[in-house]
Design goal:
This protein is α/β, with parallel strands linked by helices. Strands 1-2-3-4-5-6-8-9 form an eight-stranded parallel β-barrel, surrounded by five helices. It binds (3S,4R)-3-hydroxy-2-oxopiperidin-4-yl beta-D-xylopyranoside. The site of (3S,4R)-3-hydroxy-2-oxopiperidin-4-yl beta-D-xylopyranoside has 6 residues, from loops.
Length: about 300
């Protein structure tokens, strides 16, 4: 294939990007996004603060704009994200206990219902585990409502949109030997054993020199897939430049292609200048929309 989406399609996979709604008026941005990608994730527009700014008053206008752009250009949509400790609206940040649990479940239900039938995969829960060696859940207002908050969110999402794939999504879960990776793995294994509805695990894949692409990435992806879930690279970006950066992108693609249930890869933005970490120049196109070495290595590896 001559584009990322065409090349990925040859093995039945998708290649996606995060889209920022306010950039859909930038023709260089939309030209690249439309040409190269066939999966779209709203970078911020479906998050809790965007979709429920006041309790029980939902605002889907920014998310709908992205879904509309995606659908009119023949692209699928990853939903991001229904339950997360971050980017919560102010009213939710100070809630606790059963009131928060009920508000979270209502949020999951209302948002998943609004987008029912239009979402390929939902990141139902994002970033619920702690960094470091503890293997523990991350402390958050949601976690303090009880350890079963994650499975409750998944059950609510399944009831609201039975055809969307339901994913758990996190970062620093790439290296198989890390405690956080093992902790997420154990949760997914437990969910599958008990019939909690989970279909996929998302690996954010934000890499830099302090968090490099692990040599055992294919092992991590393969071990999760063996639990009976799809795996997806959901927010890929790699700090760096030139051949070094390009080789790391190639390694990610090779790891995904080595695992039958690795169903797609999404990068977290189009051009370096669009990145949430623009100073790291972590994406496949430079700030002028030119293809970088990382683009060519990625395309060749697909
Ligand atoms: C980031 C966005 O890219 C930024 O625009 C925003 O200010 C903060 O969130 N993990 C996630 C994403 O799951 O939602 C985050 O996106 C990046 C880290």
């Amino acid at each position: 294939g001559s584009t990322l989406q065409a090349a990925a399609s040859e093995s039945g996979r998708y290649f996606g990007t995060a889209i920022a709604g306010h950039k859909l008026s930038d023709s260089q941005y939309t030209t690249i996004a439309n040409r190269e990608f066939n999966m779209v994730t709203a970078e911020n527009e479906m998050k809790l603060d965007a979709t429920e700014p006041n309790q029980n008053q939902f605002n889907f206008s920014a998310g709908d704009q992205i879904v509309s752009w995606a659908r009119s250009n023949g692209k699928q949509v990853r939903g991001h994200t229904l339950a997360w400790h971050s980017q919560q609206p102010g009213w939710m940040q100070n809630m606790s206990g059963s009131a928060l649990r009920n508000a979270m479940l209502n949020h999951v239900t209302q948002v998943a219902t609004h987008y029912r039938g239009q979402i390929h995969s939902w990141d139902v829960v994002n970033e619920a585990f702690a960094d470091g060696s503890s293997g523990a859940r991350r402390d958050s207002n949601l976690q303090r409502t009880g350890n079963d908050w994650i499975e409750a969110a998944f059950r609510a999402a399944r009831a609201a949109d039975p055809n969307a794939k339901l994913c758990y999504n996190d970062y620093n879960t790439d290296n198989w030997s890390h405690a956080k990776t093992q902790a997420v793995y154990n949760m997914v294994r437990d969910f599958k054993a008990r019939g909690v509805p989970i279909d996929c695990v998302g690996f954010q894949a934000h890499f830099n020199s302090g968090n490099p692409v692990p040599n055992n990435y294919h092992e991590t992806l393969g071990n999760f897939a063996a639990l009976g879930v799809d795996v997806q690279i959901t927010e890929l970006d790699i700090a760096g430049s030139g051949t070094s950066q390009a080789e790391q992108y190639r390694g990610i693609v090779q790891a995904c292609l080595a695992v039958a249930r690795c169903t797609g890869i999404s990068v977290w933005g189009v051009r370096d200048s669009d990145s949430w970490r623009a100073g790291d120049t972590p994406l496949l196109f430079d700030g002028n929309g030119n293809k970088k070495a990382a683009y060519h290595y990625t395309l060749d590896a697909l």
